[in-house]
Automatic annotation (TrEMBL):
Origin superkingdom: Eukaryota
Pfam families for this protein: Retrotran_gag_2
Protein name (Swiss-Prot/TrEMBL): Gag protein
Length: 203
């Protein structure tokens, strides 16, 4: 498995209608940046064999997140930059995620599955990033409420415990502290659920 393939393992597919375009772009950029390949989104590779291979690996990884109906329109793009430029030209202008819809998503998304809370928090962070790109600033206090109110009860207990700890100085309960605590709880929950599933399989 190449570095690019591994980095894109959790990048969700672009919807056929492009409805998740903004979030998909952000996830692609983060995945490419995590392995130092993000330069190929804007710059064609040189003739150096290593760069040619890296560009090819990243191109194939991004293609794997495109539905067939979209890929057919861009299958003849030989480099990632050409593919990326064509996609952005076609989809940036018809991005359905307006400021209003992004804010609505931020405060309406909920997660009832304890095993998917980590992904849910990542989705909320992605929406915040998109709002920032649109010039919309959401106060940390509101984002904290969006996180706490949209997670299952067991995670809300973790949040309440943190609020109690920082009750004398609530401003010290930063978003980073809250998100880190919930992510840690999510990882523990995933381990517990995997262990339960394994024991059920054995028996």
């Amino acid at each position: 498995m190449s570095k690019a393939t591994k980095a894109f393992d959790k990048v969700t597919q672009l919807e056929k209608d492009g409805s998740n375009w903004s979030m998909w772009v952000t996830r692609v950029q983060r995945a490419a940046g995590s392995i130092g390949y993000n330069k190929y989104l804007t710059t064609a590779p040189t003739s150096v064999a290593e760069e040619q291979q890296q560009d090819k690996d990243l191109l194939n990884s991004i293609i794997s997140t495109l539905p067939d109906t979209i890929f057919r329109h861009y299958k003849n793009k030989p480099t990632l930059k050409e593919l990326w430029d064509a996609l952005k030209q076609d989809y940036d202008t018809k991005d359905p995620l307006t400021e209003d819809s992004l804010e609505k998503q931020l405060f309406s998304l909920t997660c009832t599955n304890p095993a998917k809370v980590g992904k849910h928090i990542d989705n909320l962070i992605t929406i915040m990033d998109e709002l920032a790109k649109h010039g919309v600033s959401i106060p940390d206090s509101q984002f904290k409420l969006a996180i706490i109110s949209s997670t299952p009860n067991m995670y809300q207990a973790t949040a309440r415990a943190l609020i109690t700890v920082y009750r004398e100085e609530p401003n010290k309960l930063t978003l980073e502290i809250l998100i880190t605590a919930i992510h840690a709880e999510a990882v523990m929950m995933e381990v517990v659920l995997q262990g339960f599933a394994f024991r059920s399989f054995v028996h």
